Amino acid sequence: MTQRSGLALAVLALAAERPMHPYRMQQLIRERGKDQVVNVGQRSQLYKTIDRLVRDGLLVEQATERERARPERTVYAATEAGVRTAVAWTVEMLTAPRRDFPEFTAALAYLPLITPETALEALEARLASRRAELERLRADLAGAGHLPRLVLIEGEYAVALLETDVRWVTSLVDDLRNGALAWNREDLLELAEKFEDT
Fold first, then answer.
1. pTM summary value
2. Which end of the chain has fewer surrounding CB within 10 Å, N or C?
């Protein structure tokens, strides 16, 4: 069975919409702003995903196109099994998401490796970046207000997540600035040794 992924779902959804070649799939993902939630930065990953979907009978080669002065392009269509799989994946992703392991959470888990001052500097940089991203996303949504909400729903969710992230990191930065959150590496190492002895 093909491994479920956001990119595989996007490919199946586009090929179910109408048969198309990989370059057009990549273009549409970007044009529709879906590259904010599906990684299509590397075309090789797109082709590997398509190969897996073809291998597993979820996509079929429908035709080969050739435009003037361009190489041949294979056009792919979703099979009935591909459409059923895309629907099943969508429902699964909505109801039972896979556990992911974000780097930020891992960095928080090992915050004691750095000093509170270094943590504050890093988190202030993150906060500035996240605020800028939040403003950009809000502007994008406002600029796309003529589109139906359904095609912008993942943008709404991204804004909600960023708002939460900004709020929480702001609180953490405040705690580091006022000393409510502080640590000393030597004390933490001593504490870790005590726990090992018990």
1. 0.78
2. C
